[in-house]
């Protein structure tokens, strides 16, 4: 098991490479109450697997409880030759219970994206935030299902580059996210 700040030691190849999934299994902290994931992403908008969310995903949390499957999916979906849409959704079995999205994520450019799920902000999604108004939020609180989702696959998106990916097992203040974006996509910012 990895320890805090050990980065790549927290990731392992998916257990079944024949499944055509390209993500990595996360083996770090468990998420019982709060979680946040942030990353710099660079999508090329090349042909993408439109119906396979795992192959578009930045993060894919899944699990089951009392015979019900749960999935919290954070992914980029191509919408045109020059744009993608950033999405976070929560599904129970095949039914989408909650969804947030941000349109107009330009292709062939770096963007700072992420989501958080916590008691204060509920489910929140962001792209290149400069003020509190840049955070999309749901008033619903799907936090209670985090304990049902013990599997986390990360970085499964094809045609997307990732940099400075961070996984938080706890509440992350919006000010922390705003500060990370203001610092920018530079090597000196990765050590913060």
What attributes characterize this protein structure?
mainly beta; 192 residues; 7-stranded antiparallel beta sheet; globular; 7% helix; single chain
Shape: globular
Number of alpha- plus pi-helical segments: 2
Strand neighbour order, sheet with most strands: 1-2-11-4-5-6-7
Unreliable segments of 5+ consecutive residues = none
Largest sheet report? 7 strands, antiparallel
Mean pLDDT: 87
Write the layout of secondary structure elements.
Elements: E1 11-13, E2 24-26, E3 35-43, E4 57-65, E5 68-78, E6 83-92, E7 95-106, E8 110-118, E9 122-127, E10 135-138, E11 151-154, E12 160-168, H1 174-183, H2 187-190
Antiparallel strand pairs: 1-2, 2-11, 3-8, 3-12, 4-5, 4-11, 5-6, 6-7, 8-9, 9-10
